[in-house]
Amino acid sequence: ITAASDFQVLRRSGTSIAFGSVNLASTNAVTGTLPVGNGGTGAATLASDSVLTGNGTSAITAEANLKFNSSGQLTVGSGTPAGIVNIFSGAVGVATEFIRMSGNVGSNMLLTMTNANNATTAANSIFNIAVGGASAGDPCIQFIISGVTQHAIGVDNSASDKFKITPGATVPGGTANHGIIVTNDATPLIGINIDNPVHPLDVSGRSRANQTVQVQENPTVVFGAGAGTGATGSCTGGSNGFQITFTTGTTPHAGGLIFTVTLVTAYPTAHSFVPGARNPQAATDLNKFYTSGFSASQISVSANGTLAASTQYVLYYVGTGY
Fold first, then answer.
1. How far does Cα 195 stand from its chain's mean position?
2. Are 233 and 245 in contact (CB under 8 A)?
3. Distance CA 247, CA 313 (A)
4. How far apart are alpha carbons 183 and 171 in whole angstroms?
C-alpha cells in the first residue's frame, strides 16, 4: 500500500484500506478527548457563550459566570445582560468593591467616557449612579486624599432626597448643617450650612460680596393728607431700597400721613428702613418725616410738623428685614 503524501494514516473506507487523512468530524474516526498537553481542550463539550479558561494541563473550563455572546456583550456573574459589559454579584451582605484601577502614574490618571456623536443634542454622555429605592442608601461620589480628608457629593436619600456637597464626610449629609444643600422642591431652595433652607438662598452665618444688586420691582405709593391735596409722585427701586420723588399739593396737613409704600415682594415677618435726603428741600425737612407704621410689605411715613406746599421732595430709603 502506497501513501500519496507524508503524514497520512491507514484508514478504512467501506471494505478497502488505504492511506489518507483522518476525518476529525466523524465520530467513527475519533473517540475520547484530546488532552491539553497534546494540543486539545481536554473537554468533551463546551457551554454556549462561555469564556474558556485554563489551569495548567487540566481540561479547559467553560466558565458559567464569564460569558461573551454573539451580540458582543461580556457578562461576569449570572444575569441577563443589558449593556456591553455587565457585572452581576447577586445578594452580598458586606461592602464589596466591584472595579478597581490602581497604578503609580507619573502624570494624569484618567477615566474617560466619550460619546463621539456630534449630530444631535440628544447624544448625551451620562454617568448613572443609582440605588434600589426610597429606603436605600445614598447615590454619591467620594473624593479622598489618602490619610488627609474626604468629601462627599450626592443625594441624601434619608433627607427628602436633597442634593448635598458635604466636606469631611463619607456620604452626603454625613455631617449635619455642613456644606451646600439643594432641596428637591419644585422650586429648589439652597442652603449654606443649613439642612432645611426656607428661602431661595438660606445662609447660616455671615455672607460677603463685593456688591449686592437688588431686582428692580418698583413699589407702589399712595399719598395722604400730610402731602397735601393733589400731591403727585413716583417710587422706584425694590424691597431693599427705593427712591420716592413727589411734589406736595396744597395745604399739607400737620402730623398727617404723607405716603404709604407697598413693596412688591414682602418680607417674611417685618422690615426696617432708614431714610435719606436726595434733594435740598428733603435735607432741610428730613426731620419732618418719620415712620408711623409698617408691616411685612408696607411702610407708612407721616409728618412731624408740616411740609412745604407745592414743593418737590426726593428721598431714598434703604432697608432690611427678617
1. 16
2. yes
3. 6
4. 17
pLDDT tier at 248 (50, 70, 90 boundaries)?
very high
218 and 236 Cβ atoms separated by less than 8 Å: yes
| Residue where the block lists cell 445578594 | 91
Among residues 272, 210, 216, which one has the least CA distance to residue 243?
216
* Residues written for the chain: 322
- Check whether 235 has a pLDDT greater than 90: yes
Q: Which of 286, 291, 285 is nearest to 308 (CA)?
A: 285
Cell of 186: 419644585
- 171-225 residue pLDDT tens: 999 999 999 999 999 999 999 999 999 999 999 999 999 998 999 999 999 999 9
Closest-CA residue to 179 (of 168, 166, 195, 170) = 166
β-bridge mates for residue 165, sequence order: 153, 180
Q: Are 182 and 153 in contact (CB under 8 A)?
A: no
**Distance separating alpha carbons of residues 318 and 240, to the nearest angstrom:** 6
What order do you get walking across the sheet with 220-223 strand by strand? 220-223, 257-262, 298-303, 289-294
* The C-alpha cell that represents 95 in the structure block: 461592602
The reported pTM is: 0.77
- Which amino acid appears at position 10 of this protein? L
Average pLDDT over residues 235-250: 97
49 within 8 A of 68, measured Cβ to Cβ: yes
Distances (CA, A) of 51 to 33, 48, 66, 71, 247: 19, 9, 6, 14, 91
Please state, as a whole number, how many other Cβ atoms lie within 10 Å of the Cβ of residue 116: 6
Contact present, 173 and 191 (Cβ < 8 Å)? no
- Separation between Cα atoms, residue 11 and residue 170, nearest integer Å: 73
Closest CA relative to residue 265, chosen from 300, 221, 203, 219: 219
Classify residue 109 by burial, with Cβ atoms within 10 Å: 0-12, 13-18, 19+: exposed
pLDDT digit string (tens) for 41-71?
Answer: 888 888 898 998 988 888 899 999 999 999 9
Q: Which residues contact 153 (CB under 8 A, 6 or more apart)?
A: 140, 141, 143, 164, 165, 166, 172
